[in-house]
Design a protein that fits this description.
Helix 2 crosses helix 9 and helix 9 runs parallel beside helix 10. The protein has one domain: TIM Barrel. It is globular. The chain has eleven helices and nine strands. It is of the alpha/beta class and 355 residues long. It binds S-adenosylmethionine (SAM), 6-(5-methyl-2-OXO-imidazolidin-4-yl)-hexanoic acid (DTB) and iron/sulfur cluster. 6-(5-methyl-2-OXO-imidazolidin-4-yl)-hexanoic acid binds next to strand 7.
Length: 355
């Protein structure tokens, strides 16, 4: 057994260094990679204490957002993202299909709403949609919005006029992840650049759509790359309203199928640091929850996660069963966010509307 020596910390070092927000969505920055890495390396109990303190200051209601995903256009994607089962060049057994019809999507959205979700996210395996694709997705957005759900879409790279068209249709959020640090990006995907991702995020912002942007851990990245991802996200000005943190789902047939899984405690650290650096963001415990188990998820909520993907399926891979998730929230004494019990007393349009 390895011998571990524990050095007591000087008095005062365990106090939380709570940072006050200058404005709700531009707090604390700019963050250097070194400062973020130093946070990641803090003694776990200090880190959790600080993250929970920041969390309580910014989300006194303490509810958990339930967001349901639907793959509206599956597989056959021309990009080569090393993590993704939907890339055409990998043999993953995913069957490619065309864009779903409005009534089929509406049925799924209604079921998600009936099960308690407040946000419905439509994903499409495109590198970049064509204008005629955006027109059809705009119809989906309008229909889902009509049910009283928050709408989110993730369709790949967007041009400015396409973002505007989606905004006009009532899109609340656009998900477009930076996925990892800029210097590790080329090791994961080389059919597009980091700058391409940032350009789309800028178009989404300019159109007035709220940004959902996060990344994946467990892709063989070094701790400095995790710090680099968080620093990039936190330094977006403003930082994203929603930050999904995915634990890589290792799908056979993808280049990352055999990546070493991240240590669960390191996963919790990433959540805590996302909370501290982006105090007002909804930090979402995203893909890969099945692999974490209940105790680690509980630590993630302690660390400031306040959103989950909810429903038996992600896009093409599995997710914890919805009933099991509701039981877990109940066991932990956590409440799901609901449209009728809004903390702000207004119809939820964006998180900012509740500020
Ligand atoms: N094609 C669009 C794009 O790439 O932005 C939208 C769909 S894509 C599947 C959305 C996100 O899912 C990716 O950016 C990535 O963060 C996440 N993702 C994909 N495969 C994953 C996996 N195996 N494990 C964890 N997250 C994954
Ligand atoms: C995000 O950050 N994670 C979701 C959503 N945004 C679109 C997707 C996870 C995909 C996991 C693998 C799959 O089922 O395709
Ligand atoms: Fe295509 Fe998106 Fe999958 Fe990359 S992550 S292969 S862009 S569907």
């Amino acid at each position: 057994m390895t011998e571990v020596s524990i050095t007591p910390a000087p008095v005062g070092e365990h106090l939380p260094a709570v940072r006050q927000a200058a404005s709700p969505m531009t707090a604390g920055g700019p963050w250097t990679v070194a400062a973020v890495q130093a946070l990641l390396e803090r003694p776990l109990m200090d880190l959790l204490f600080e993250a929970q303190t920041v969390h309580r200051q910014n989300f006194p209601e303490g509810d958990i957002e339930l967001a349901t995903l639907l793959s509206v256009k599956t597989g056959g994607c021309s990009e080569n993202c090393g993590y993704c089962p939907q890339a055409a060049e990998y043999d993953t057994g995913v069957k490619a299909s065309k864009l779903m019809a409005v009534d089929e999507v509406l049925r799924a959205a209604q079921a998600a709403k009936d099960a308690g979700a407040t946000r419905f996210c439509m994903g499409a395996a495109w590198r970049a949609p064509k204008d005629r694709d955006v027109e059809k997705v705009a119809e989906l957005v309008e229909a889902v919005k009509g049910l009283g759900l928050q709408t989110c879409a993730t369709l790949g790279m967007l041009e400015a006029h396409q973002a505007q068209q989606l905004k006009d249709a009532g899109l609340d959020y656009y998900n477009h992840n930076l996925d990892t640090a800029p210097e590790y990006y080329g090791a994961v995907v080389d059919t597009r650049s980091y700058q391409d991702r940032l350009d789309t995020l800028a178009h989404v912002r300019s159109a007035g759509i709220s940004v959902c942007c996060g990344g994946i851990v467990g892709m063989g990245e070094a701790p400095v790359h995790r710090a680099g991802l968080i620093a990039e996200l936190a330094n977006l000005n403003p930082y994203p309203e929603s930050v999904p943190i995915n634990n890589l789902v290792r799908v056979p047939g993808t280049p990352l199928a055999d990546a070493d899984p991240i240590d669960p405690i390191d996963f919790v650290r990433v959540i805590a640091v996302a909370r501290i650096t982006m105090p007002r963001a909804r930090v979402r415990l995203s893909a890969g929850r099945q692999q974490l188990g209940e105790a680690v998820q509980a630590l993630c909520f302690m660390a400031g996660a306040n959103s989950i993907f909810y429903g038996d399926k992600l896009l093409v891979t599995g997710n914890p069963d919805a009933q099991a998730d509701l039981k877990l929230l109940h066991k932990l004494g956590l409440k799901a966010r609901s449209i009728s019990e809004k903390a702000c007393g207004k119809q939820i349009e964006t998180e900012a509307a509740c500020a």
